[in-house]
Structure prediction request, 395 residues.
Amino acid sequence: MPEEIVTRVLCLPGYGIYAAEADEAANTLTLWIRQTAGEPYYVCGGCGISVREIHSWTERRIRDLAWGTWTVWLHVEVHRVRCRRCGVRTERLPFVNGKAHYTARLEAVVAQDCEAAPVSRVAVQRGLPPETVRRMDKRALRRWAAARPRTPLHYLGVDEIFLGKTVKFLTVVSDLESGEPLWVGLERKRETLDQFFAEALPPARRRAVRAVCVDMWEPFRLSLKAHVPHAKIVYDKFHVLRHASDALDETRRAEFFRQGGEARGLIRGKRWLLLRRWAHLDDEERETLRRLFAVNRRLAKAYLLKEQLAHLWTYTYEGAARRFLTNWLLALRWQRLPAFQKLARMLMQHLEGILNYCHEKVPFGKVEAINGNIRAMLRRGRGYRDHEYLLLKVQ
Ligand SMILES: [Zn+2]
Prediction:
């Protein structure tokens, strides 16, 4: 094979081919390469200066981009050099990242493929083991994440994602201004959030945090009090409203069993209709609910209470929000709605964090959006057991 042409096709500046072997059966091309300069320099892997003096050398097999249908392997001389600063170190090859067994350009292409396709498909397309593809993607993402500028964190979001029976929860911490997840950890204990602060948010960066949007979940509150005591805790509106939906659902079930005959028939199968917001229903659905409410006043009251509660987050003045909530609680009296009594107690216990929204308008919607992305990613990747990789992928 004319070495000169192959060297030009290979296009690794400073390196040339001195031997080549083509295995037709395996469709594999093996190229032996080395520096072309008469007295070459080697870059010290420790400090990056150029070194001439060689201690020893070995050969490393490195996978490169395919040439047409050929799989290409490079055999490179890798030198141990005597650096005057670092002593004996392995040289740094200009076309390989670190100690990888593939070229930087192959890694870049694979990482780009992984943006649009799952690891398994990229592995098949590139003829690489899935584990290698995942490692290449992860390395590329890690470098990208490290190079990103860090802006101060003002609004943190802490939320959990339900996974399944074995590992039940993932805790996700995100930057609510940029809408990016910052950290993912196992379970949803106080220790989980403590770990986030230890790993990802050094004390110097905690001061900028103004508010944290979080679920009404005591372990998280305790961790936040310990690490960012100055930050306002704002309870996530969607979580609070989900509790209200649960209360409505509990009322529906209780009414179903309390009543007999015709009324029971009206309640049957209305669960999803009841749990939707009035504004999202069409005329026919509203009429169905009106008929149901006409015969069951308690359910009507419960639905109204749940609908009204959402107004709580429209106030800018704490006094007004407090007044609204007081009226809401008054409307609840004498209604014999135990599920809502329970909800009311929960709201009173978390009153400060709910009213804090008047002072810190954290973007609630972002938390939901970020979690939606992560859930989609988990489904597509059939569960990223590697949380660092999951986090890098969603950033
Ligand atoms: Zn050195």
Remarks:
- The first helix runs from residue 3 to 10.
- The CA atoms of residues 249 and 272 lie 9 Å apart.
- Residues 155-210+364-394 form one domain.
- The chain has four domains: 1-95, 101-148, 155-210+364-394, 241-358.
